[in-house]
Write a structure and sequence with these properties.
The protein is of the alpha+beta class and 174 residues long. It has helices at residues 3-9, 23-34, 53-59, 89-106, 127-135; strands at 45-50, 75-82, 110-115, 141-150. It is built from five helices and four strands.
C-alpha cells in the first residue's frame, strides 16, 4: 500500500472491538512518532503510552465531548512537549501525531486524534491541567493531544480524491 492509499483510508475511529493490538504494532506506531521531524531538530515531544483501563476511562472524561472513545480503546498515546525548549512545540506535536496516525492506518489500526490543548472538562477546568495532575506531568510540559487506538468496529470507505476541494489549492497568487 502506498502512502496516498494510506492517507485515503485514514479515518477517525470512535468505536473499537475488544481485540488486542499486537505489541510490535504499538511499537511501530511509537517509532513513527519518534521519527517525526521537529523545528531545529530540538525534539521537545515525549510520548506517554496508556494501556491501563482505569486511566483510559479517566482520560475519556477529560474533555466536555470528543473523548469518550478512550474508554473503549485498547490504548492511547499522549503527546506532551517541554515548552521551555522549543517555540514550535505545537507544530512538532502535530507532526508527531500525524506520523503515528498514518502508521496506525498502515497496520489497519483504528485511531482518532483527541485535541487536548485549549479544551476544557465539564467543570470548565483545562483538560491539559487535569491530565498533567493525574499523570504527574511537570508543569513546564504541555499536553497537545491524545491518539486513541484500537481495532475498528466498522470500516469507513476511503476518502475520494475526486471529492476533495481542489479550489483550495492556489498557484502563485491567492
Amino acid at each position: 500500500m502506498n502512502l496516498i492509499e494510506i492517507m485515503k483510508k485514514r479515518r477517525s475511529t470512535r468505536e473499537y472491538t475488544n481485540e488486542d493490538i499486537p505489541p510490535e504494532i504499538i511499537n511501530d506506531i511509537l517509532k513513527a512518532g519518534q521519527l517525526a521531524p521537529s523545528s531545529k531538530n530540538i525534539r521537545p515531544i515525549e510520548l506517554l503510552l496508556i494501556e491501563d483501563k482505569n486511566t483510559l476511562e479517566f482520560l475519556s472524561k477529560s474533555r466536555t465531548h470528543g473523548s469518550t472513545q478512550l474508554k473503549n480503546a485498547k490504548c492511547a498515546i499522549i503527546t506532551i512537549a517541554d515548552t521551555t525548549t522549543a517555540d514550535a512545540w505545537i507544530e512538532d506535536a502535530s507532526i508527531t501525531m500525524t506520523h503515528m496516525m498514518l502508521m496506525a492506518q498502515y497496520h489497519n489500526i483504528g485511531n482518532c486524534w483527541i485535541q487536548i490543548r485549549m479544551r476544557k472538562d465539564d467543570n470548565n477546568k483545562l483538560s491539559s491541567d487535569i491530565i498533567k495532575e493525574k499523570l504527574g506531568i511537570p508543569k513546564h510540559y504541555e499536553v497537545e493531544a491524545i491518539l486513541s487506538l484500537g481495532i475498528s468496529k466498522t470500516t469507513l470507505p476511503p476518502q475520494e480524491w475526486e471529492k476533495t476541494e481542489k479550489n483550495k489549492v492556489h498557484k502563485e497568487k491567492y
